[in-house]
Write a structure and sequence with these properties.
The protein is about 85% helix and about 0% strand. It is mainly alpha-helical.
């Protein structure tokens, strides 16, 4: 059923559809890239500014890094597209195992 919607039998319509979709994808990637550059500049500014303590700067930079990883996954690695459910499952499972491991080791060291 979905294949019938993408392939209408008219090559001209299919080419126009692909051009629109590609232009939309490129727009998302350019906007995402610009936001990532902006977040990087904010991180540099936070480090450069001597008014912030390390207790603020380090978690703030980690937060900006997490946001950039999300942009990277969803727009540059196309995780938002259909058909990427299995890689997403494995990726999120790995993140969960990594977070639990860091939590476990940090509690062992602190206590």
């Amino acid at each position: 059923m979905a294949n019938q919607q993408l392939n209408s039998g008219n090559p001209r319509v299919d080419i126009e559809y692909r051009r629109r979709k590609n232009a939309e994808e490129m727009r998302y990637q350019v906007v995402s890239f610009a936001l990532m550059i902006f977040l990087t500049l904010i991180a540099f500014a936070a480090v450069y500014n001597k008014g912030f303590s390390a207790w603020f700067t380090v978690p703030f930079i980690i937060l900006l890094a997490v946001v950039q990883v999300i942009f990277q996954l969803y727009y540059f690695m196309h995780m938002s597209h259909k058909g990427h459910e299995a890689p997403s499952l494995f990726l999120y499972s790995g993140v969960l195992v990594g977070a639990i491991t860091v939590l476990a080791f940090s509690t062992i060291v602190w206590w």
